[in-house]
TrEMBL record:
InterPro entries referenced in this protein's UniProt entry, alphabetically: Complex1_LYR_dom, Complex1_LYR_SDHAF1_LYRM8, SDHAF1
Domain of life of the source: Eukaryota
Similarity comment: family membership: Belongs to the complex I LYR family. SDHAF1 subfamily.
GO CC entries: mitochondrial matrix
Coiled coil regions, renumbered to chain: none
Record-annotated Complex 1 LYR protein domain positions: 9-63
Presence of keyword Chaperone: yes
UniProt-annotated location(s): Mitochondrion matrix
Protein's name according to its UniProt entry: Succinate dehydrogenase assembly factor 1, mitochondrial
Major site of localization recorded for this protein: mitochondrion
GO biological process, one term: mitochondrial respiratory chain complex II assembly
Claim: Plastid is one of the keywords in the record: no
Amino acid sequence: MARHSKLQKQVLALYRQFLRAGQDKPGFIPRIRDEFRENARIKKTDVMHIEYLYRRGQRQLEQLKDVHTKQLGSFSKPGHKS
């Protein structure tokens, strides 16, 4: 089994924290899993992007832990108009 880098371990720990924080909020777990699966496609060599997403994830986790949080916001790419 391959050893994980420090950044990979941090991302995995963040994922586990998200899953724990989302247990008490209905509908959050599938959204969390989808988001992490989507970002798992990022190349391991794209460290700057991974670190950016990690910091963004930490901020979102703090929001999720807030007892008043009822839903997660998201940013979507604008559609192309023909």
